[in-house]
Design a protein that fits this description.
The protein is an alpha+beta fold. 30% of the residues lie in helices and 27% in strands. It comes from Algoriphagus chordae.
Length: 428
């Protein structure tokens, strides 16, 4: 079949890399894609939020499956739109409905969903600008540190952890009154701070059936030792040793099952990926947040460990036939190191020429913020530029392969963290 994949990041390059390995793939189109997807698929100059143009492209190229990578078009309702158009009503789409995408689009909506379905999560209350005084009073009664979350999408930057009451009150005022995160912080969720070890669990669901994909741990902050500003993600490893069989059984029973059953019970159409941010607190899982798509850069560590046909998994999600799919996962480790433009997550210069190694062993290079210049040279086009994933029989080997390749990649002002996975190695 012909497939249309929406997105342009490292996640989408990893999806494309896996999809084209399938014998079921006739032609893969990626909109808009990047310099990496250009080498294995056909990039299409379409905006991921231009729903009319996407519909017309699906019709013109006889697309048999649409895969939505990022959250923005999902939250804006692309699945509902395509299902309501006569020309695309029967085209399978991998991605939840607009209502389902509200699990990521609104922190308050997602917390209320968890409460209704008895999914373990942190205690919370939600406040608007009109309720500022009540919010300030609520803060005075809470333990520190305390977490403040912008209700809406804030490009991964809408979460603040405040260690003093003064900081928490000032931050709440900035978010509600000064619109620190724009309309995303028109509502603010004030949440109990959870302690433990964080991990990401990924679930594929067709709305009735589900498959739990390999788990991962990502590294959000720009500086080594998890210091400095938050980013979209500086690296990831999979599997993680603190997600043993006993813990993952609890995750399935206490989190995954009630979530999938809750979506069905509440008539929330959901055929897509569910990314569950979890805290492992002494062996007990608590949900930090839901995301309604695969994570980035976790995808670049998770997908290389899937041995079964990935396109068949996607087709099972989109057509509601996931129960017949047999998921096979490798016991190998995968470690992803993200290389970023100097200055990221602040301002950075684009157009720097990137030099890649001629040969790589035990490694995949996934493109994120890359493009080709007028001379056909590979250049940086975004903050997160490349995700380098090493494979190995153990974590040490996977990390060694990743860092060996990273050291052979060059461009002016390139930066990466040298401590990805080291905390887990120290636990082993």
């Amino acid at each position: 079949m012909n497939i249309l994949l929406l997105g342009s990041g490292g996640r989408e390059h990893a999806f494309a890399w896996k999809i084209v390995q399938s014998t079921g793939c006739t032609q893969l189109y990626v909109a808009p894609g990047n310099a990496g997807t250009e080498d294995i698929a056909i990039n299409v100059k379409l905006s991921i939020t231009d729903f009319d143009a996407i519909r017309d492209f699906i019709v013109s190229k006889n697309i048999g499956l649409v895969v939505v990578g990022p959250e923005e078009p999902l939250v804006k309702g692309i699945v509902d739109y395509l299902q309501n158009q006569p020309e695309t009503a029967t085209t399978p789409v991998v991605g939840p409905s607009q209502l389902g995408a509200t699990l990521e689009g609104s922190k308050d909506f997602s917390k209320r969903f968890m409460q209704r379905n008895n999914v373990p999560t942190a205690a919370y209350e939600t406040f608007t600008a009109a309720q500022l005084d009540a919010g300030l009073a609520y803060l005075e009664k809470q333990n520190l540190p305390i977490v403040l979350k912008a209700d809406g999408l804030a490009a991964g930057k809408g979460v603040l952890i405040c260690s003093t009451l003064e900081d928490a009150k000032a931050s709440l005022k900035e978010m509600l009154l000064d619109k620190k995160f724009g309309e995303a912080s028109a509502k603010v969720v004030i949440e109990e701070f959870l302690t433990g070890i964080e991990l990401s669990v990924f679930v594929a669901t067709d709305g009735k059936n589900y498959k739990i994909l390999p788990e991962a741990k990502d590294y959000k902050r720009i500086g080594e030792g998890d210091t400095g500003l938050n980013t979209g993600g500086m690296g990831a490893v999979s599997p993680v040793i603190f997600a043993d069989e006993a813990f993952m059984t609890k995750v399935e029973e206490l989190v995954v099952k009630p979530t999938v059953e809750g979506l069905a019970k509440e008539n929330i159409p959901y055929k897509g990926f569910l990314f569950i941010g979890l805290m492992n607190n002494n062996g007990e899982p608590h949900v930090i947040e839901y995301n309604v798509r695969m994570g980035d850069p976790e995808t670049e560590a998770v997908l290389p460990r899937i041995e079964s046909d990935f396109l068949a998994l996607l087709h099972g999600i989109g057509t509601g036939t996931l129960d017949s799919y047999e998921l096979k996962i490798s016991s190998d480790y995968a470690a992803t190191v993200v290389m970023v433009s100097g200055g990221y997550p602040g301002s950075y210069e684009k157009g720097k020429i990137i030099s890649l190694p001629d040969t790589i062993i035990g490694t995949e290079i996934f493109h994120a913020g890359t493009a080709k210049n007028e001379h056909g040279e590979l250049v940086n086009q975004g903050g997160r530029v490349l995700a380098v994933t090493g494979r190995g029989e153990n974590l040490q080997e996977a990390l060694s392969n990743a860092f060996t390749t990273v050291k052979e990649i060059n461009w002016d002002q390139a930066y990466y963290r040298k401590d990805i996975g080291m905390d887990i190695l120290n636990l082993m």
